[in-house]
Specification:
Elements (H helix, E strand, L loop, with lengths): L4 E6 L2 E6 L10 H15 L6 E6 L4 E3 L4 H5 L3 H15 L1 H4 L3 E6 L2 E3 L1 H8 L2 E5 L3 E3 L13 H9 L1 H10 L3 E2 H7 L4 E3 L5 H8 L1 H5 L2 H13 L5 H16 L2 H11 L10
Parallel strand pairs: 2-3, 3-5, 4-6, 5-7, 6-8, 7-10
Antiparallel strand pairs: 1-2, 8-9
Helix pairs in contact: 1-3, 6-7, 11-12
Bound molecules: coenzyme A (COA).
């Protein structure tokens, strides 16, 4: 049996690849469960700094829900699937490492929602993104209405959700849906890994503190967010890595961070 989702380690980086190119890497029940398993496995590893999620082949990152499977599902199975999106994919927003979607082609419906669950997004210049659900008589059900509105604002999120239009990489960049667009001739995965080198090689306590503090801005009050920022700063201040960074600066060399 072919693997639905592949997991590969590259030092402190995990690469997770949706691997059903014949179905445009669409999300089946089994692939959502496998993503959940991968999330639980990665949560055990405190050395992990970055997780890149991408799709196999050069056409699709993910074409959303597996519509062929969906045709044979009962309404209660679909409800279970909606719960599974939340329980099995939520780790992409909640882990101690940075998650990044490297969008290698179309990201439609649940595919775009999956990318929105990640902390960051990159794509190839030919990528197409969209939320076609309302045209299918449903709404985005994997967090898309909430995450897109928080990311780009209610008005822009309504435009994309209600009109179902597919947007180009350039528009996605201008809206702030993706952080980086890479030339089609380059591998979006390799370009993304290069872009994130400073994260993978940076001071672990500082990287984690910045990640958790900025993420908190999405849901906490300003006062609570400022408290968290202070707590995270204090952790950095007490770390050996902070002293090492100052020493390295004075000695004009690269710091050697130990995560302590
Ligand atoms: N679920 C299951 N299979 C899918 C799929 C999906 N979401 N999207 C594409 N596929 C399958 C197609 O059925 C086709 O398989 P087949 O040849 O065995 O029928 C194969 O992937 C290739 O798709 P095809 O449409 O021929 O390729 P394309 O390059 O012309 O178009 C897409 C690609 C992704 C733009 C187009 O398939 C599409 O719009 N898919 C539906 C996306 C969608 O609405 N997702 C939201 C779900 S809520």
């Amino acid at each position: 049996m072919t693997e639905l989702v592949r997991l590969e380690r590259r030092a402190s980086i995990a690469v997770v690849t949706l691997d059903r190119p014949e179905r445009m890497n669409a999300l089946s029940w089994a692939s959502v469960q496998r993503l959940g398993e991968i999330g639980r496995e990665l949560a055990q590893d405190s050395t992990l700094r970055v997780c890149v999620l991408t799709g196999a082949g050069d056409k699709a990152f993910c074409a959303g829900a597996d519509l062929k499977e969906r045709q044979g599902m009962s309404r209660s199975q679909v409800r279970e699937m909606l719960s599974a999106y939340r329980s099995e994919l939520g780790w992409l927003s909640n882990s101690d490492f940075v998650s990044v979607a490297a969008i290698n082609g179309v990201a439609l419906g649940g595919g775009l929602e999956l990318a929105l669950t990640c902390d960051l997004r990159s794509c190839t210049e030919l990528a197409l993104l969209g939320l076609p659900e309302t045209g299918l008589g449903i709404i985005p059900g994997a967090g898309g209405t909430q995450r897109l509105a928080r990311l780009i604002g209610v008005s822009r999120a309504l435009d994309l959700t209600l009109t179902q239009r597919r947007i180009s990489a350039a528009e996605a960049l201008s809206l702030g849906i993706v952080n980086r667009v890479f030339p089609e001739a380059d591998s979006v995965l390799e370009s993304t890994l290069k872009w994130l080198e400073p994260v993978a090689q940076g001071a672990p306590i500082a990287q984690r503190g910045a990640l958790l503090s900025v993420r908190a801005a999405q849901h906490s009050s300003l006062e609570a967010g400022l408290d968290l920022e202070r707590e995270m700063y204090d952790r950095c201040l007490d770390s050996a890595d902070r002293d090492e960074a100052l020493r390295a600066l004075a000695e004009k060399r690269k710091p050697q961070f130990q995560g302590k």
